[in-house]
Amino acid sequence: MSTTVGQSTLSTTINSTSNHSQRSIQHSTTLMVTYSMVLVTGTISLGLMMHILKSSSTSITSIAVFNLIFAHFIFLLTVPFRIYYYATEDWTLSFGWCKVVSSMIHIHMYMSFTFYVIILLMRLASFYHNGEQLASFQRIHAVLASFVLWIVVLVSVPCIIFFVYGKGGNTNHSTKTCFEFGYSIQNSVKILNYFISILIIVVATVLTALQTNVLRVLYRKHHQGITSQQDFGAQLKSLFFALIMVVCFIPYHMFRLYYLENTEELQGVNEVFLALTTFNCLDMLTFLGRRTCYMFFKLCLNTA
């Protein structure tokens, strides 16, 4: 009787291990393909955007966009390491560099969210107050604010990575694996994660609703020649930024509210949801007008 029970338990364990291994392979394949797409399309998007912005005026909004481009650029530098890891399923670099690459996706997401909020608030303020309150906020102030923000990020983030990120929980973490830091989410950090996720969901939803209302007002006001209105075009691009937050960030943070209570079981699924947030690197494509698209396709045809 005991032999039968032992065999049954062993069989269950083997099946569970086999299923876990199969899911791990599926997650790795999905993540490798996702990050490869993000790297290629994100690089093209940034290249096109830099070509457009180099001849544009340095408004407060464009300064925020430059910051957004810089955040994308820094993140894309770390993507090849993720692709290589998910292709080989073997981390051969240091554990410290693993933490840097792992944390960069979160930094990118939160920095992107911050700049989205700034861009949307600027556009909303210019619409509701006709730019009166923005007049006192000069471009030099925006540049200085950006400089201070990046200094704070570049100083504080390494400290957080070294002293906090990946600490606690499972002390038997394999040096051959990476991006599996769910075990380090303790109670205090868990509360902070809940707060951040709820904040992002609420802010993204509210800003999207406000931006939609702006377009509704403009449409009613300039119903006939709405497409020729410059303000409408600018606000439409802002709506695209808001929708990017909704599509890329809200699903992940809604899932994260559940993941925080099941970190070990949902580690792989969490990585997939997290990877989907990186498609916001394509946000620069919202600035491409028909003329730019035509020039791009013409250049591709001439090259071919």
TrEMBL record:
Q: Where is the sequence biased in composition, kind Low complexity?
A: 8-21
Localization, UniProt: Membrane
Q: Which SUPFAM superfamilies match?
A: Family A G protein-coupled receptor-like
Task: Identify its membrane topology class.
Answer: Multi-pass membrane protein
* Recorded GO CC terms: membrane
Q: Keywords in alphabetical order, please.
A: G-protein coupled receptor, Membrane, Receptor, Transducer, Transmembrane, Transmembrane helix
Region of interest: Disordered? 1-21
Q: Which residues form the G-protein coupled receptors family 1 profile domain?
A: 42-258
Q: Which GO MF terms does the UniProt record name?
A: G protein-coupled receptor activity; oxysterol binding
Transmembrane regions: 32-53, 65-87, 107-128, 140-165, 191-218, 239-260
Please give the chief subcellular localization of this protein: membrane
Q: What is this protein called?
A: G-protein coupled receptors family 1 profile domain-containing protein
Upper lineage ranks?
Eukaryota, Metazoa, Chordata, Craniata, Vertebrata
